[in-house]
Structure formats: C-alpha cells, structure tokens
Amino acid sequence: IPVDNFDLVIFGGTGDLARRKILPGLFRRFISGQMPEEARIIGAARSDMSVDDYRVMIRDAVHEFDPASAKHKDCLERFLGQLGYVAVDAMGEGGWKELHAEMRENTVRAFYFSVAPSLFGAIAERLKSFGLADDQSRIVVEKPFGKDLETAKKLNRSLSEHFDESQIYRIDHYLGKETVQNLMAVRFGNMLFEPLWNSQYVDHIQITVAETVGVGGRGSYYDTSGAMRDMVQNHLMQLLCLIAMEPPAKFDPDAVRDEKLKVIRALDPVEPHHIVRGQYAASEKTPSYRADVENARSFTESFIAMRCQISNWRWAGTPFYLRTGKRMKARTSEIAVVFKDAPHSIFGPEAGYHRNVLSIRLQPNEGMTLGVTIKEPGPGGMRLVDVPLDMTFAEALGPDAEEVPDAYERLIMDVIRGNQTLFMRGDEVEAAWRWTDPIIEGWQRRNDVPKEYDTGSTGPDDALMLMHRDGRRWREIK
Ligand code: BG6
C-alpha cells in the first residue's frame, strides 16, 4: 500500500548513513511500489554539489550497498529523478531559502537529522524560522541521543522548543527489525505464551547481540562511547523492554511506550560484580581495539555482559543477562527465554536434563524456535530428546512472501504514515540514561580496566563466570 505523497529532506544527505542505509532503503520501498512516484527526497549537506552530481553519488551508493536492487535499472533512474539536493549551512543562513523553495504544499513534510547531535537544535530552529516546517511536519533524529542524562535532556529541550513530542521520531533501528515487532505479535497475539511469561515459569532471559566487525573507521566516536552507550542504553534496552513489558491496552504509540517506560523505571541499579567489560585483542589479521581507535591507553569497552534485575511483580527473581560485543565469534542476535524445569520428573534421572527455551532470532535467519521435549522415537524405552518447533519466518511464509524490509525502510515509512509506535519517546530515552549513568560513572571513579578478549571468541572468560556463579550458562554463539 503506497504511503501518502511526501517531501523528505535528509540533513547529512551525503553522509555514511544516508548512502549506506537511508537511500538504498527508500529505493527498495520505491521498487515495491510503496513510495509514491511523486514523492521527493532532498539531500541537504554542507558541500556545494549539483543535483546531477548528487544523483550520481546515490546511484553509486545503491550499487555499492545494495547490488541486488541496483539491477532494477529503469526503476533506479526513475527513483533518482525524484532526488533533489541543496547545500545548506546548518549553523548559518546559507541555503535555507533555497531549501524552502524546494518544498511543496499539501504533502507530508519530514526532516531527517542524520547529523551530529550538536546540530539538532540549530536545524530545528531554522526549520521553523525559515518557515519550512509547520505543526504537521515530522523530524527524525538518529542516535546517539546524548551521551548521558544531562545531554539527552538538553537535546530534548532544544527540540521541544520548536516541535511537539508527537512530531519527533527518535530512531532506534532495532525496533524496525522484523523479529522485534513479531515479538509483540507472538506475546500478545497468542494465548500460549503470556500465562507463562513471568518469574514463576521463566528461569532467566538472555539477550545477545554479537558482532564480528570491529569499530572500523568510527574509532573517534566509539572510543568516547563504548558498548554501553553504543548498544546497551538503546538497542538492548529496547529489546529488554519489549520482552518484559506488560501488555499495553492497545497497539498505539503511547500505550506501548508507557509500558516500556515502566520497565526501565523498574530496573535495579547494577552491582559492579554483575558487569563484565572487555576489549578485543589483535588477531593475526585484525588490529586490537586500542589500535583501531588509535588510543593506546583506552579503557573503553567493546564488549559488555551484565546481569540485570527488574523489580516488579512479574519479574522479581528472574535475572536478565545482556551481552554484546564486537569482533566476536559470529554475527548473531538472539533473545532466549529459558523456562524453569518441570517441578518433578516422572521419568527419573536417566531421562536427562531438559528445559524449554524460546529462542527469538533477530539476525541472521530471523525467526523463533521453541525447544520442546519429546520421547526419542524408537523402541529404546522412555528416553527424552529436545526438538525444535521452528518458526523461521522466511520458510513459514513461503517463497512468494515479500522480502523482509530492512529496519530503516520500515521506520521511514512509519514516519510518513505518522506512526510513532516504533520510535522512542523523550522520557524513555531519559529514563534509560538515568539507569546507565551511575554504571558508567562507577567505572570512571574506579578506573575500571576492561578485560582483553580474543577476536573471534565469545568475550572474556569473566563473562562465562558471571553465569557460572549463578549455575547457568550462556547460549552458544553460532
Ligand atoms: C549501531 C551501532 O547503532 O548498531 C553500531 O552504533 C552497531 O556500533 C550497529 O554495529 C549494529 O546494528 P545491526 O543492525 O547491524 O545489528
């Protein structure tokens, strides 16, 4: 279903995110027929560049970052025809009138801030003072949304001077992933899971987001951020919220976000001995973290494992283990709900140790698997075996199902539709910082040194110990 006609201005339109994700994503929506032929996308950035040069840049970007879509040659030329470009000085006066001249009446206006957060306030102010944005316009802001509570509050204040909360779309691209939304469908669309979804039946929950990449060319940003600010405060926290929240009364933006906020507020402070920080070492082929960020004395973590506790009626006593890191063994993101043992085994000790685990895979191979215990087939007596009830989406929906859209594609279409459900509200972001700030301050006070771990491993051994101490173990990363 096509969305309404729109004008989308991308500040930072020549930047990495625009070329890698935003524009190839919009092109895929164009191919699928969801982006209207009259819609316009206007790149805005500092450099002086003609519209033709911009189109060449974006054509190259689509070829580089999405070669499969680039094969739709005619389509790509039509898409490029819908692009515009204006050189704009975000902090000054230059280019704003020209940008204004590009905007049309009676279309949805959206402004994507794919720029450093230090520019958010200035751009928001100019959008209003030059008459580009009105009460119906939307602004989209990227992470990092601040680096602590104070900076996040400042950003919220500077945006809210010019825009109402209902116009502000704070992106966390994890919320746009197919499985993440499916998590809500599975939890609240079935009778099967919800009655068991609490500390009476769930032993613990594990959330792992493992990456094989290092920090690459983003060293200067990453070294001031670390895994806690880069991944935990936003992506892992959002996953935790969706897993742990109470059923909202409706699937509407504020009902969902109210419930997520309650989860963050119910998180206990984390004891230092419940956190393990790591930094990747050099391998034969790849540099160490410290070499990557060109800081031989860096104490920033590229890995984190932690045990969290949500103090509310539903989850008291059920730990949540979070783990994320770079240069790990495999690229895997998984949420695992590990259920408790059956209260009594009628099959005796020889039947072995069995537990139901619901594994929700975000990537790769998006889907869910429920481990169920059955009798081992054959005449060998009552021996038990675990088999997966597999709900891999691609297989379940068949070969004709539309390809799963990338997170950015979906989220941008939601902006045009005016649906904020999958975007973070200002108070949510602030509550998340309120929880992470004391943890980070604690490390700074104690001069905490991250443990080194091997590239291609599952992180430092201490992370294994974190689980062992509790008589549990991490799920395999594969
Ligand atoms: C980004 C982080 O938000 O998410 C990156 O800044 C990280 O450091 C990325 O690599 C992971 O996203 P995905 O979608 O590849 O899992």
UniProtKB/TrEMBL annotation:
UniProt pathway: Carbohydrate degradation; pentose phosphate pathway; D-ribulose 5-phosphate from D-glucose 6-phosphate (oxidative stage): step 1/3
Function summary: Catalyzes the oxidation of glucose 6-phosphate to 6-phosphogluconolactone.
Source organism of this protein record: Donghicola tyrosinivorans
InterPro entries: G6P_DH, G6P_DH_AS, G6P_DH_C, G6P_DH_NAD-bd, NAD(P)-bd_dom_sf
UniProt-listed GO biological process terms: glucose metabolic process; pentose-phosphate shunt, oxidative branch
Amino-acid positions noted as binding substrate in the UniProt annotation, renumbered to this chain: 173, 177, 211, 230, 326
Annotated NADP(+) binding sites: 12-19, 46, 143
Protein family (similarity comment): Belongs to the glucose-6-phosphate dehydrogenase family.
Keywords: Carbohydrate metabolism, Glucose metabolism, NADP, Oxidoreductase
Enzyme class, first EC level, given as a word: oxidoreductase
Record Pfam families: G6PD_C, G6PD_N
Annotated GO CC locations: cytosol
Catalyzed reaction equations: D-glucose 6-phosphate + NADP(+) = 6-phospho-D-glucono-1,5-lactone + NADPH + H(+)
NCBIfam families xrefs: zwf
Domain Glucose-6-phosphate dehydrogenase NAD-binding intervals: 9-182
The protein's name: Glucose-6-phosphate 1-dehydrogenase
Domain Glucose-6-phosphate dehydrogenase C-terminal: 184-475
EC number: 1.1.1.49
GO molecular function term, any single one: glucose-6-phosphate dehydrogenase activity
Active site: 235 (proton acceptor)
